[in-house]
Please model this.
Amino acid sequence: MSLAVGVAGATGAVGGELLRVLEERGFPIAVLRLFASEDGAGRKRVFCGREHPVGALAGGCFDGLDVVFFATAPAVSRAWVPRARAAGALAIDNSSAFRLDPDVPLVVPEVNGAALAEHRGLIANPNCTTALLVMALAPLCGLARPLRLLVATYQAVSGAGSAGVEELERELSAAARGEEAAGGGAGPFPERIAGNVIPAIGPCELSRSSGEEVKVRAETRKI
Ligand SMILES: NC(=O)c1ccc[n+]([C@@H]2O[C@H](COP(=O)([O-])OP(=O)(O)OC[C@H]3O[C@@H](n4cnc5c(N)ncnc54)[C@H](OP(=O)(O)O)[C@@H]3O)[C@@H](O)[C@H]2O)c1
Model:
């Protein structure tokens, strides 16, 4: 059986990687529709040797699709996932928008794939740190109940999406020209990122946890 598939956020870091994996695994696709922001519409992406146009999200854009992958920011997913479900498609969302919704399965297939059976037209993917963590934890949990976890991650600029990669390239180019890269606020990072390591991801809360730490704790517990 081949599926009619949509990818929202197809021009971004996650969307690009998703397309690469779908192609590599020979995912059975009969129809492929790609979406990005209005600014990104009109571009093309090559999939399985064929150019596909990128369109903007618009009324009726999900009609006839079986599955829509969302690789978009939470606000975009919040606005458009309900429309994909209303059009009868299964939505699979990579953003944090629905991860902690009790009615939405949060799934890493190798760990809790059984939860897929409970979906009502929407499946959420965890934060990338959570996905790796639970893969390592699942076999250990089969042996004993962990009482405490000490977790450290070392993350690439691509975790901040295309804008993160572009900021690093901009700063490295400036350094290669012998210029001091501005950094700090211009891109997605609070400080210069070239040759640097920033010990937090996302805003720090009153609890002194960063946004990333809060997500990892809550999502890991849910899975
Ligand atoms: N990067 C990671 O390692 C990672 C890992 C796990 C989960 N995530 C999550 O996955 C989502 C995407 O992340 P990313 O890193 O791929 O971000 P990104 O590189 O910034 O890509 C964002 C994508 O969303 C599109 N977009 C922006 N505004 C839009 C709008 N109003 N309507 C439709 N499409 C719009 C962009 O299109 P244009 O090209 O037109 O701007 C682009 O295709 C985020 O929720 C992120 O938290 C990211």
Q: What stands out?
A: Residues 8-15, 35-37, 39-40, 57, 71-74, 76, 94-95, 128, 158-159, 161-163 surround NAP (CB under 6 Å). The helical segments are 13-24, 74-86, 109-112, 128-141, 162-176, 211-222. The radius of gyration is 19 Å.
